[in-house]
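User: Can you model how adenosine monophosphate sits in this protein?
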Amino acid sequence: MITRRSMLAGLASAIAVAGCTRAQSVEREWLIYTTLLKVRATAADQATANTCCQRVFDTIQTQGPDLYGFGDGELSRANTALSQGQSVELSDRLYDLLRRADVWRVASGGRFDPAVGGMVAAWGFDDLTRPQTGGVPDQAAIDRMIAATTTGYTFGGSRDLQSFDPAVRLDIGAIVKGALLAEAIAAVADNAVERLVVDLGGDVAVQSMAADDAFRVAVANPSGGPPSALLTMRSGEYVMTSGGYARYREIDGERYQHIIDPRSGWPVPPAAATVIGDDPVHADAAATALVVGGPKEFSAVCDAMGVDKALLIDNLGTHLTTASMRERLI
Ligand code: AMP
Ligand code: MG
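Assistant: Here's the modeled complex, given as structure tokens:
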């Protein structure tokens, strides 16, 4: 069993960097599961900057496990209850997140769908702590999961959740990083931090006390190598990226990546989507929906999901951008 302590695979030492005349910057890094968390805080003194970095890490480390479909956190326990035909009463936090996710499931036409968990598990991508095993699922298993995903779940009175099919399994891996970034930023809102950059595996939050402050953020290159784009971001914004290159497996020489089209039950072709917005959960859901939609559906999914700053890079390296995103490209 994974304990919270063992999630922390490594803790780099704090580096105090002399900033401009008075401000002090502190940079810290941690590995959480397979995700690198990098925090850079600038404050009047080093202790304040350091406390801010630590609070970001503590929030993400303690709040994460309840949102994963593996381990013994709240979502995992909810999935067990649903598989036994029981309804579950959720915490306010998980209930609110699933309600919001459900709005985007509908808006995205099912491209983003939290009920995709059974398919994600069938393809072996459900547990970040285990290497993926098994081959291509047989079509009957995929069809079974399509049926369960389509039938789905419903919210009852109070904070109840009920599935219509015991095979329904929820997976909010597509919005976990957005949710955790929002919570981490809220946790340091009362800190006297002048400037803050939180990079959670390439998904980035930026905050500054100076309203006209601008940040440069690099977007990872899906095929490795130098960043595929450099973006300007403003305080209070988040940049969320979803990409098959981040997690994939090879079966009989074919590469299958971890984002599944809930309509077919199959992993989608490699692509990477980046969305800038001031609601990280929304941007995160939209990035996943854009990868599922692929280049052909880029504009339609942007409209449906209500995002105006989006970039999609397909497997040939072609960039599709919205007009507002083009203004942010450096
Ligand atoms: P992201 O990198 O934000 O797109 O999140 C990918 C993760 O979301 C996967 O590892 C799965 O846990 C989950 N997932 C995969 N496909 C979908 C989908 N179509 N809708 C919602 N979640 C998905
Ligand atoms: Mg996402």
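A couple of observations from the model: Residues 174-175, 240, 242, 284, 287-288 surround magnesium ion (ligand 2) (CB under 6 Å). The chain has ten helices and 19 strands.
User: Helpful, thanks.
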